[in-house]
Amino acid sequence: MYRLETGTVVSKPHYQKGGKPKARTQPKHITYHVQANLSLNPEVIAIPIVSWDGIPWGNSKNLFNHNCNANL
Hints:
two-stranded antiparallel sheet, 72 residues, elongated, mainly beta
């Protein structure tokens, strides 16, 4: 449904104390996370999901336990 346009890894330094660190203070540790830009992919075709008895899930009264004999 979505297409990855760009993705980068961003680093974030963590210091011993909160607030602005002093000049030349070494971080206690560094964490990394992914930053990505997504866009809708118009080439993807949606296919409806159908339950075991042929009824589309959106029309079912009980979406989780539709036509099933499980005791939850």
